[in-house]
Amino acid sequence: MMILHHGWRSSASRRVRLCLEEKGLSYQGHVVDMAKMEHHSPEYLKINPNGVIPTLIHDGRPLHESGTICEYLDETYPDPPLRPQTPYERAEMRNWIRHIDGLIHNLIIFNWRHHLQKVASQWSDEELAEKLKNIPSKERQESWLRVARKPYTEEERDAARAKLVQLLDKMEEAQKPSGWLVGKAYSIADIAAVPFVKRIDEEIAPHEVTAKKHPHLAEWWAKIQARPAFARANIGPFLES
Ligand SMILES: N[C@@H](CCC(=O)N[C@@H](CS)C(=O)NCC(=O)O)C(=O)O
């Protein structure tokens, strides 16, 4: 029995849903409302000490970190495989996950300025102080403080956008031999990048995932969006219509 605590628009959650759907695994989904700070409640912190989504519960045991969860799922349910064949390629896959994970703050700068900023800016100083106390990491306390009181500036957004476009450049370079980030097949390295590319393409830098700017990446993106698991994972538009 698998339970996934996730958010529909959360990039890390999207990775795990992609992985589950590629493997055809059924799970019970539980949506965590970040605007209500449900992920910082004492109950949730027991299953995810970092206070972030997603968390997978498998046979009663919780697991956090989307990249780790995807690898765990692939080891536990190897068919179809989502890790490359050789130890070297698997190491490369982990380095992609690590690299992309390191860019999450650049996505937060764009993502939280929508729904979460609207909610957080209305909290009183007392409410905000109370909420900040429950956030386990200093960095995320700072991120919540920023969205609530001092939204990221145009300059900060430009710098974040430039870092995300560099990711696209790196992906373009990597895909040349096989059409995938690592080895000869779609893997967790590609899955790790999908939610980032989705956000970059739809809002952050909409003209970059194109045949003109990044031709290999544009082909990669088209192939991925055509996968039946992509549709089932429900990687819908980030912004509410
Ligand atoms: N490295 C973590 C990142 C998880 C993460 O940052 N999740 C975001 C949503 S995509 C979150 O829960 N943010 C809420 C917060 O920081 O308060 C993973 O891959 O699972």
Structure explained in plain terms:
By secondary structure, the chain is α+β, with helices and mostly antiparallel strands. It has 3 domains: 2-76, Glutaredoxin (3-Layer(aba) Sandwich), CATH 3.40.30.10; 87-107 and 155-227, Glutathione S-transferase Yfyf (Class Pi), Chain A, domain 2, CATH 1.20.1050.10; 114-151, no CATH class. The chain is built from 12 helices and 4 strands, in the order βαβαββαααααααααα. A 4-stranded mixed beta sheet has the order 2-1-3-4, covered by helices on one side. The chain is globular and about 55 Å long. The protein binds glutathione (GSH). Residues 10-12, 34, 39, 52-53, 65-67, 101, 104, 140 line the site of glutathione.
Mind telling me which CATH architecture of the largest domain this is?
Answer: Up-down Bundle
Q: Specify the structural class.
A: alpha+beta
In the sheet with the most strands, the strands line up as 2-1-3-4
Can you write the helix and strand succession as a string? EHEHEEHHHHHHHHHH
- Whole-number average pLDDT? 97
Task: Determine the number of helices (DSSP H or I, runs of at least 4 residues).
Answer: 12
Bound ligands, each once: glutathione
Q: Into which percent range does the helicity of residues fall?
A: 55-70%
Number of domains: 3
Globally, the shape reads globular
In the CATH hierarchy, the third-tier topology of the largest domain is known as: Glutathione S-transferase Yfyf (Class Pi), Chain A, domain 2
**What's the CATH class label of the largest domain?**
Mainly Alpha
Identify the quaternary structure here.
Answer: single chain
Report how far the terminal alpha carbons are from each other. 34 Å
Instruction: Give a count of the beta strands, DSSP E runs of length 2 or more.
Output: 4
Measured by DSSP, the beta-strand proportion falls in 5-15%
Organism: Bradyrhizobium lablabi
GO molecular function: transferase activity
Pfam families: GST_C (PF00043), GST_N_3 (PF13417)
Keywords: Transferase
